[in-house]
Amino acid sequence: MQTRSFTETLPRRVVVREVGLRDGLQSVATLVPTAAKLEWIRAAYEAGQREIEVGSFVPARLLPQLADTAEVLAFAQTLPGLRASVLVPNLKGAERALEAKAEMMLLPLSASHAHSLANLRKAPDDVVAEIGRIRAERDARGARTQIEVGISTAFGCTLQGRVEPEEVVRLVQAVLDTGVDAVSLADTVGYADPAMVSRLFERVLRVAGDKLVCGHFHDTRGLGLANVFAALQLGIARFDACTAGIGGCPHAPGASGNVATEDLTYMLHSMGIATGLDFEKLLALRARVAQWLAGEPTHGTIWKTGLPKTFAKEAAHA
Amino acid sequence: MQTRSFTETLPRRVVVREVGLRDGLQSVATLVPTAAKLEWIRAAYEAGQREIEVGSFVPARLLPQLADTAEVLAFAQTLPGLRASVLVPNLKGAERALEAKAEMMLLPLSASHAHSLANLRKAPDDVVAEIGRIRAERDARGARTQIEVGISTAFGCTLQGRVEPEEVVRLVQAVLDTGVDAVSLADTVGYADPAMVSRLFERVLRVAGDKLVCGHFHDTRGLGLANVFAALQLGIARFDACTAGIGGCPHAPGASGNVATEDLTYMLHSMGIATGLDFEKLLALRARVAQWLAGEPTHGTIWKTGLPKTFAKEAAHA
């Protein structure tokens, strides 16, 4: 019999970081107008979201969907207390983020060599070197922009196949040595299972401690929320999610989106974990996003089945 | 930091019990001919399944879909090593199961008073009394038929709402006192979350020990596999599942089926847990079941997205 509960290490409060505007939209063909993005951000903010990845500073010809990132970021910065982040693939993008005074830059680092070459045309160690240059540039400017490195394909890769946990740990140590503020682990292609999550997060926690701040799970094979639960047990208290579960990875054929914001929030509230989010407002936003993306695949479950009869009372405890 | 891993208590081997022919089909309108059911059972057997719930001894006018249970059971009994079970709602049904020399009877007992009245027209304690009479009848005949009681709506109910864990524990103790062989816990309507599962299974294990043999989770709100993971951590090593995730509960509007057999098997194999099942054969069976049920809703994820590139090698370890 158990001597310790499997639930006592669950955090009491979790941040659901909305990444639909970047990770979601970047692999969606339908162009979402800037006005709709601003409406999305305002509605997410009104639903209680305080961390939103609003876009990416990549060349507009590569990702026309995100070409308006500077404008979207500027709007997000008008909302008090909102921590807007942008994805940045290299020093050039970082310079734009620093000029825009973004509160946070997310730098992707593929643990898969093959994915790194496909995605950034650089080997992982060259990306680590670039991250070092970005950190130096940030400090030289005296900027307050935080740097989080997302270790992508941390659980395997559609191109390369297996990714060794030792390589993930080595890269985490390498980027921490460059002086970044935080790291996160991403199952970019939906290969993780909860046992893998438990084991890899435990190993990386030994190296990174509380600098491991976030889990990023794609729900490609239906294990997204099980994976979140496994990470929660290790005290991870921030998860990326996409409204309507949109998105995927352009270099990962068949990969569906991140866990759906509304499904993740339902699970957390059901477990009595506070998020600060208004569930009904998230559902209303989901409906609007699905309208903007009419014809594109969306995902998620709770919007179809509705909340349990027991839910309202239990969520109030959160 | 952790002093104990969250994966070390996972079982090395798990039984996936197929309940699609009963729990799945009982809420499906399309009548599946007996010949197709026999083909289903044979294919499941060839895929490695050794525990199959083949039907229910209820009056044919109530569930025409399961009117051929005696014939289906007789066929299942010709397959060496297959443990066929039947659902039995009362003493009359139990007498039929005993006459047919079923290896196992599953007796449902709703922890929700309202669900119990709707489903069996008896209060839970009256069902406990009937279970006692069934156990006595089994023993009087010197029959070898095992008796498992499935505590349904153990995590809440669409009719009644909240179900107190104390009531679940009380009913488990009551049926164990009648001398049944095993109990299982069922989230009949998809209200459970992994924290609820962890806590309730832990409490029931304290009362039932290794007589708590199975978890039965509906995936109504997308948490089915997360709930399985939580139960696995407590050493539970048998789960009910429906091929193609079919089914639901006639008294639970909107409830989708059990976790899909093929999705559950994928998660278990990915975690290195042996099931004895041939994944490709399960997928082929899923396709056939979906054909028989053309027009009916089916569920599940892995049949759409395919296995990870890393999967084959890791499954071989199982």
From TrEMBL, chains A, B:
Superkingdom: Bacteria
Stretches assigned to coiled coil: none
One MF term in the entry's GO annotations: lyase activity
Domain Pyruvate carboxyltransferase: 14-283
Gene3D superfamilies assigned to the protein according to its UniProt record, in alphabetical order: Aldolase class I
PROSITE patterns: PYR_CT (PS50991)
Swiss-Prot/TrEMBL keywords: Lyase, Metal-binding
InterPro entries tied to this protein: Aldolase_TIM (IPR013785), HMGL (IPR043594), PYR_CT (IPR000891)
PANTHER family the UniProt entry points to: HYDROXYMETHYLGLUTARYL-COA LYASE (PTHR42738)
Family, similarity comment: Belongs to the HMG-CoA lyase family.
Protein known as: Hydroxymethylglutaryl-CoA lyase
Phylogenetic lineage: Bacteria, Pseudomonadati, Pseudomonadota, Betaproteobacteria, Burkholderiales
